[in-house]
Amino acid sequence: MRKSTRIKVGVLAGVAALATATAVTGSANAAVEGGSTCYTLPGSWKVVDDNTHETFLGSYYGSATATAGVVNFTSPNNTTTASHGEWRQTGCGTYSDTDVAFLIGADGKAASTITFKANITVTGKNTANFDFAFTINNLDGSYVTSGASTGKATRIAVQPR
Predict the structure, then answer these.
(1) Hey, CA dihedral for 118, 119, 122, 128, is it positive or negative?
(2) Which residues contact 75 (CB under 8 A, 6 or more apart)?
(3) Is 88 exposed, middle or buried (0-12, 13-18, 19+ CB in 10 A)?
(4) Is the pLDDT confidence value at 29 over 60?
(5) Does an H or E element contain 133, and which?
(6) What is the chain's Cα-based Rg?
(7) What pTM was computed for the model?
(8) Among 41, 62, 88, 98, which is disulfide-ready with 69 (CB 3.0 to 4.6 Å)?
């Protein structure tokens, strides 16, 4: 092999090694510096319904690395109890949840249930989009009505006193 060819091969091998090292450490640094776009769901959220403009408060329990957990939501009215359910991760920054609450009748007792099923995309560290459907059933399980909506959410962050 000629000397100039050996130099070219050596230079190309060096460039390839440098590119590989940069790619590997670059990826590690991006993950460390929060460069990942896979935002996490666990925490508490304020969700504003795009149609009714009502505000719902919800908490997704689990560590920052959890892929499933428990969810509770509070409705803005006094005819719906707090909901109880579960959530799970479905992909990078995407989640689904199902939660159920009682709807209270005029007599102050549970009259029916409302089941929410949501697909959630966490779009930033403190923002998310909700796409949800609901079904209302009588306590005997018979169907009453259903509907769907979307909502925008912001994470409820710690605010120092």
Answers:
(1) negative
(2) 54, 56, 81, 82, 83, 101
(3) middle
(4) no
(5) strand 127-138
(6) 24
(7) 0.76
(8) 62
Nearest one of 65, 68, 66, 75 to 132, comparing CA atoms: 75
Distance separating alpha carbons of residues 47 and 130, to the nearest angstrom? 8
HEC profile of 56-90: EEEEECCCCCCCEEEEEEECCCCCECCCEEEEEEE
Distance, CA of 62 to CA of 43 (rounded, Å): 8
The predicted-structure confidence for 38-55, as pLDDT tens digits, reads as follows: 999 999 999 999 999 999
The amino acid present at 22, given as its one-letter code, is T
Residue 103's closest CA among 143, 139, 53? 139
Cβ–Cβ under 8 Å, residues 93 and 37 = yes
Give pLDDT tens digits for 107-150.
999 999 999 999 999 999 999 999 999 999 999 999 999 999 99
Checking if the pLDDT of 12 tops 60, the result is: no
